[in-house]
Amino acid sequence: MGSRSQTELKTGLQRRLGNIFRMRDEEINALADSLYKQRVQAWKTAIAENAKACGYTGAIPEPSGRDAQWLKSMSRLDADSIAKTWRKDVEKEIGRLYEANHRGNRYYYRKGIDEWNAKREVWKSRQIANQTEMTTFGFAQARFLGENEGLVALYTFVGPPPVCVICIRLYGMGAVTKQVMQEYPTPIHFGCTHTWRIMPGTATGIDPGKLWVGGKTPRKRAA
Ligand SMILES: [Zn+2]
After folding, report:
1. Distance 78 CA to ligand 1 centre (A)
2. CA angle, corner 202, sides to 201 and 205, nearest 5?
3. How confident is the model at residue 16 (pLDDT cuts 50, 70, 90)?
């Protein structure tokens, strides 16, 4: 009988705690906004980097049209998924804290979860920032190449020393054509920090001043 009431207490307390530590809608919205700002920045950086490698030195506009839409919807999806993961993780941690001390009160749990979260934040925030930056880079580069169809260049796989089989292979390939690099859109895998870079001096086919560098409608190009 005693163990039964304890189980019920545990369930009730855990459920209440789960609700206390759940991310609220306002928090998820604020997170989506913050991720969108990061993505806008990463998008501009990626477009600027690709355009610069083609000789373009002008300004990069704010993303608009389909670019802004993609950045916004990805930020929303990410915020929802981060909130879902957080909920799952925090519930697991509540369970762990319970196993460590069946008599813990709400202060015990708050302290335990604060400590657990501080440690989790260290790697989690870096992981999220990386993933946000790398997926945005891949998207922006694909958009840049898609809009600047006539561009011909060579590409190299750049980033830290690779550890996964595919990245090691791509890293070792040296200069490749657009056809090859487009078969392997970055990030190659979750946590991958590699990108394709246009090799300086190899870009031809479009006058730098006529490159698409953002905006809804492509600029008129010379035939
Ligand atoms: Zn990689």
Report:
1. 20
2. 115
3. confident
Q: In which residue are the tokens 């979860």 written? A: 113
Q: What is the largest CA-CA distance in the chain?
A: 85
Residue 213: alpha-carbon gap to chain centroid: 21
Looking at every residue in the chain, the average pLDDT score rounds to 91
State the residue for tokens 């202060």: 107
Rounded to the nearest angstrom, the distance between the alpha carbon of 97 and the centre of ligand 1 is 36
At 14, list the tokens.
């855990």
Whole-angstrom distance, CA of residue 74 vs CA of residue 60: 21
Q: Are 23 and 81 in contact (CB under 8 A)?
A: no
**How far is the centre of ligand 1, averaged over its atoms, from the C-alpha of 14 (Å)?**
39
Q: What is the pTM of this model?
A: 0.86
Which residue type sits at 45?
T
Tokens representing 127 are 């992981």
Using the mean position of ligand 1's atoms as its centre, give its distance from the Cα of residue 95 in Å: 35
H or E segment at 155?
strand 155-158
Rg (CA), the chain: 23
